Amino acid sequence: MDGQECGKCSKLWEATEAERTAVYDKPQCKHCGVCYDFLRSTLCEPCKVVQPGYHDGEAVLSNPSSESAKILSHGSSVGNATRSTAATILDRRSGFTSIASQHHLNQPRPQNSSLLSASEVNRKVSALKARAKNSQVDIDFSLWVYPAQNKQVTAKRAKIPPSHCTFPANESARGALQQLLLKSKGMYCTIPVQSTDAIPSEILDSMFKFEAATFCTAKGSGPGGTAVIEDQVMDGSIEDLFVRLKHKRVLSDKDGSAKVPRITLHIYVYEIEWDNEEADNSPDIVETRHNSKGKSRVRKSAPSRKRKRSDSKDLASATPGPSTKRALYQSEYQRRPSAQGSAQFSFETFKFRQTTCTIATDGTIEPTHCEDLEEISIARNWQTQHRAKQLGGGYLGQGLTKLAIRGRYKGLDYAILQCKPISSSSNTNMKDLSDELCLLHKAQYFMDSFYKRALAHGVKGLPSMKWNIVGAFIGKLTDLLPPAPTDGTDDNRSLLYDVFLATPLLPSGALYREVKFSGNEQPGNNEDMIGRVVDAYSHHVLVDSSPDHSVTLFDPQAHIESQDSGYWDKGPDQIQLFQALHDCNQFCKALELEQHVPGFKH
């Protein structure tokens, strides 16, 4: 040891009686005698460089060139007589200050379990936010209309506000554009009618056909501010469309530099001439400015309505004269196969015979049985998602009493409905589904008479509404189904009963929004325009179905005086409740419905 006494002894001289125990407990180097608070071995770090130990009272250094050896040799050269213990310790401390500082800086900070969990949650949330920004595409769009008058050569912007929609990055580009066109059509129908004549629904359907519309990106204002999106560019997802448009440099600077992929669109449609005087029976529809070749050319500006002289002659010759018998309009629209191919789902094929309904002019419904043998495909393993309460695969959803399963019939997507096995049997399943099909036909019958009443009273501007009845049918399997398992294993059969109700599957993309207008026991008093028209339709059904006063609510469900339309029917009590709670709106009054059933609340 250097000096006359060790470090612990020097501290004991100055320590009080109460501090002596703490001094004795301090770790001490057996070589140099210095006390360290956190010494874990018998020697301190400087003394560990001495190898192999003491020989005849002299220290042997294993590495004389090391920093510690220099410090020790320097302390030894001074001698015990001329150098105190404190000075020796000070020299040693200065040599290891930097090393000790780095050691303490690199120690991990201790965290409790709560802080660790919070840090992990924050990390996952940040990752999800970053992923969400890159997994969607924003689209801002506006509607532009080419007037049917020949003097107009430029499109006019429709009086609807600019709209914004967000689509998943993997959404079909063509499907997304179709949804935008349908939304534009709905907004266009809400514009206040400028003239006394409302545009018929078949005219609007032709105006907003996907093949007739032109989609352009908005690069900026002025000439060359738009660029047509070609048909082949629409293949793939909406993210692929964004990448291609950005690569072609047809996006605005704002869209191209946005953190979230964004496209600004102009949608161009063409007005169609129609004869208002004969629109009731034989509408005269001539599409005067439909540019059928617009999508095959690359244009850097909005599509022009100028036509070749030969095209004008063809249009003129196609227009019937005053003495020519006008042809009835026939829609060219065809239901397109689903974008989701059968590769995404596993189907099981069943053979069945079909039953539909026919309804007479007086509202009498008669079932029609077809003896032809047909095939339908039902999604497999949908009960796995149903048990997990997760929509997906072949499981479409459920209501209070029925399950909805994905099916395919003649290349089209269908919703296959069957009653839940817990509350139904094979007989009740067949009766409930048959009642619902008949009710769908009766609801559409009253929908048709609702528009006839509007036409008779001169009410215009009503939105186009219809029930999902076209293509609906009851199917009965020709082969027996295997029984449900009784050994406690999961039931994974594709069909639960041999009778099912099939209705066309409605599109449910990013713009789909489900609205409930009324309940089985809650007559609707809606505030928006479409909801008020639906309320007026309910009022019309009550008046038009006299003398049995059936009120069609919307699932569809009905209440009639005989109380035998289905399990949902509550009979005259619910009819009286509708009369008490219904508030006649402007459509009811325009159709003079309040005059037919006295006692309504106004």
TrEMBL record:
Keyword Transferase part of the UniProt annotation: yes
InterPro entries linked to this entry: a-kinase_dom, Kinase-like_dom_sf
Gene3D superfamilies assigned to the protein according to its UniProt record, in alphabetical order: MHCK/EF2 kinase (3.20.200.10)
Region (Disordered): 282-326
Biased composition (Basic residues): 291-310
Keywords: Kinase, Serine/threonine-protein kinase, Transferase
Positions of the Alpha-type protein kinase domain: 422-588
Keyword Kinase in annotation: yes
Pfam family, any one: Alpha_kinase
Parts of the chain that traverse the membrane: none
GO molecular function: ATP binding; protein serine/threonine kinase activity
Leader sequence residues: none
Top-level taxon of the source organism: Eukaryota
Protein name: Alpha-type protein kinase domain-containing protein
Native species: Suillus fuscotomentosus
